[in-house]
Design a protein that fits this description.
This protein has 3 helices and 16 strands. It is globular and about 65 Å long.
Length: 345
């Protein structure tokens, strides 16, 4: 019978709500190699505790999966002492604080998932030097500042949606297969091709508004002034009138309205605003009559018949109808023409 791992008391103290048994290496969530814990998977176990700082004592740890819990607090500053750590999955918890700079020393790190937490501050620039990194998910955090210029040829996945990163998106390795970002202040340098969903040039972004610190109005303080008077009253205390304060209160500044920076006013979701013209929207399928082509015959609609014409047509049919006056005039013209012809003979 092998001895109990020296890591068992450490993991038991770190997660007291989990019963690991006498030999933690036999627990379903743990894998041991040479009697040391190399993998700890407590994902989705409804853990409600602060992130244990003692986790760094598991020096043989290679995979740590604690996602989908309710862990709170911040990451220990010395988490980078886990030199053999390959996978660090802490997504969808309630962790906060800054990302420790010591993460940059994890030379074997391949997967880093910190999404769905309340991490703040800038991402350590040293993370750009991770040589073995394959995937990074920082989505839905409160991280700010520039995105490190990752150089690892192994990097394939970079997810930055729902963050507050800003500045120009750095050039990224050509090996990246999936890269998304909906950070409204990320932009492209002049001449840089769109990447990671970023399409807006930095020169086209509106400037951040300057914050004006309001100046408190001057407070009137009664001032006692000693003056020399009569011998029996060597000092007379006089008070500066309250209606004459020293200084004029500064006007209260009006706070400028913050621009949306690409967020919809209704649902607060990031709204992509590409720099190139949007494609035309599809029109409805209802057909409308086409106008006559220029240069071609276009039939003119017949004029509407008058009531009198309609009565005549009802009496005489569709044959042309000549009124009496018109017939008389025609006869006179015919007689005149005949007389002229006779004279000519």
């Amino acid at each position: 019978m092998s001895a109990v791992s020296v890591d068992c008391p450490v993991v038991a103290a770190a997660f007291p709500s989990v019963s690991f048994g006498a030999d933690c290496c036999t627990h379903e969530s743990i894998i041991c190699t040479d009697n040391r814990i190399t993998q700890l998977d407590l994902s989705g176990k409804a853990l409600k505790t602060a992130f244990p700082a003692t986790i760094t004592k598991l020096t043989a740890l290679q995979q740590l999966y604690l996602q989908k819990n309710e862990l709170t607090g911040s990451l220990p500053a010395d988490i980078g002492s886990l030199a053999g750590l390959q996978d660090l999955a802490l997504g969808n918890n309630k962790l906060s604080g800054a990302i420790p700079a010591s993460l940059a020393s994890l030379a074997a790190l391949e997967q880093l998932t910190l999404n769905g937490n309340d991490f703040t501050g800038a991402l350590p620039a040293g993370l750009a030097g991770l040589k073995s990194i394959v995937g990074i998910n920082l989505s839905n955090t409160k991280l700010t500042g520039p995105v490190p210029a990752f150089t690892a040829a192994s990097l394939k996945y970079l997810v930055l949606d729902g963050t507050a990163f800003d500045g120009a998106l750095p050039a990224l390795p050509a090996t990246i297969e999936v890269c998304t970002s909906a950070a409204p202040r990320l932009c492209l340098a002049d001449g840089q091709k769109p990447a990671c969903g970023v399409t807006v040039l930095c020169s086209a972004l509106p400037a951040l508004p300057t914050t004006t610190v309001p100046v408190a109005p001057a407070t009137t303080v009664p001032v006692v002034v000693a003056t020399t008077a009569a011998a029996d009253k060597p000092y007379v205390a006089t008070t500066v009138p309250a209606d004459k304060p020293y200084g004029t209160p500064a006007p209260t500044p009006v706070e400028p309205e913050l621009p949306s920076y690409g967020y919809d006013a209704d649902d607060k979701k990031p709204a992509y605003k590409p720099a190139y013209p949007a494609y035309p929207t599809k029109k409805d399928d209802k057909k409308s009559p086409k106008p006559a082509a220029p240069g071609y015959y276009k039939e003119t609609p017949a004029a509407e018949e008058t009531p009198a014409a309609k009565d005549d047509k009802a009496t005489y049919g569709d044959a042309p109808i000549v009124s009496g006056a018109s017939a008389f005039g025609t006869s006179v013209v015919a007689l005149l023409a005949a007389g002229v012809a006779a004279l000519a003979l």
